[in-house]
Amino acid sequence: MNAGKLLGLEDASRAERALFFVTMGVMLSLGGFGFLRPSLLSSVLTGAKGRILTYFGWWFTLLGFVLLIAVFAFTASRYGRLRIGGPDTEPEFGLFSWLSMVFTVGFGASVLIWGVAEPVSIVQHPPPDPAPVQGASAESMALAFMFIHEVFPGLAMWYLPVAIAFGIVVYTDGVGDYKISSMLTGIVDEDRIPGLYWLVDLAALIATIGGISTTLGFSAQTMSAILGGVFGLDATVLTYAVFALIGAVFLADVWLGLRKGIRNAARATVVLIGVAMALLVVVGPTLYMLELSLDATGVWLSDMFRLTLYTAPGAEGNWAANWTGFWWAWWAAWSIFVGSFVARVSKGRTIREMFAVLVVVPTVFTWIQHGLIGGWVLAPGYQEPVAEAMASAGNPAAVAKALEITPFGTVLAVLFVLIIAGYIITSLDSAVFMISAITLGDENPNPRNRAWWGALLALFGMMSLRLEEFSAIESLSVTMALPFSLFLLLVLYGSYVVARDYVRDDERDRLGPQTVRQQRTTRSVTDDD
């Protein structure tokens, strides 16, 4: 077997082979540098992230608001009726499988990790005076910010522009090349700027790998903290063993593919989440959880735009940029991967149906989850121990401490470990599927190429167990998100251009050119009157 076949590159073009080797080289070099000089890597990347959030935090806030309006307008317009893949395309997945894949890929373990860490951290370090919402308790305002960042409008701002553009350009209009750069088809001719499309795909791959690596790292550290803090086990060794088992399941899923592997892992994870949340209601501080959730929901709904556009002008520090700016930048970096994957599994669905499964249903689901988790860790008797654990050992330790002090916490901890493992498998599966597809320009990439990308991502995730500074990779996503923020505007406009031309051509084909001209003349006369 030659090297090309071993790497799954036997049918790849020269540009696609270069894309594979350059991306692998950049990420392995970054990983090696992080292993040898972790402090320097951390300093460089976190410094870049800090400067971007300081000087461009306002830009991400504004961009998110603009994208929110544009997505609602696009979905409500006649283009919202367009079907991904064309009018005769049948859905490939059932409703539950489709929703499960979209949800688990779009969120990952952040629901558990940040669901504990963010509200507690905001209560401990609230926004500067004057507070954005007068009269609200610190706990309600903290949970309301959590709703803004991970429920709504965050859900509608970032993934949908890419999902709409990728679905319309690649599937409905049939551009043919399964790459991120294909979304530029409607506005930039590849021949006019040689190499532009290749560079866009390279940047998309690096940003995606950086974002996924961060999530895998957080997931691995949280799993290790739970195994060590709750069960008193040799956490690092056992976590490596769990990762080895996850790796075996992942490789099996790679060969099973999208329909059996990713779909089944996603469905199992969603079921486990439902069981864990039901148990948390029973064993947690139930009354406080429900009351705080409702109070925070009132703050969230009544002051949604105020919280979304909050920038704390004139205040010392960068509170708003470090929270909302960071979240929006991370969402922007993840949008490339998640949006294209959502388009892939949404064939046969309309834009409006995709909006429902990516925004409406997950909004309800994540609102319930974050309300319960936030109410749990902010309750009296929980908040202080969790805050102390987070201050001394970081976010993963906060999750472990919350489980440790909860009645039947060991049962809940087992469920959390299984959920995190499910998120890891689903994220790995879907990430390598899309990374390989973007690299090869193939909607169904071969399992050998996907396995190599999976090995790279798993390596980055496991390295984070040893290298605390390796979490600086998170800064890579924020850094890459800045140039991609402009890309999001371009692709949304490009999808409008392609959709407009597609609808016009469809009208011409169905009605005939004479009828179309008569309709346009009638509209023109009516407008003049």
UniProtKB/TrEMBL annotation:
Positions of the UniProt region annotated as Disordered: 510-529
InterPro entries membership: BCCT_transptr
Membrane topology, record value: Multi-pass membrane protein
Pfam families hit by this protein: BCCT
Membrane spanning stretches: 18-36, 56-74, 95-117, 156-175, 196-218, 238-258, 270-290, 325-343, 355-379, 411-438, 450-467, 479-499
Subcellular location: Cell membrane
Organism: Natrinema soli
Biased composition (Low complexity): 514-529
Key word Cell membrane present: yes
Identification of the protein by name: BCCT family transporter
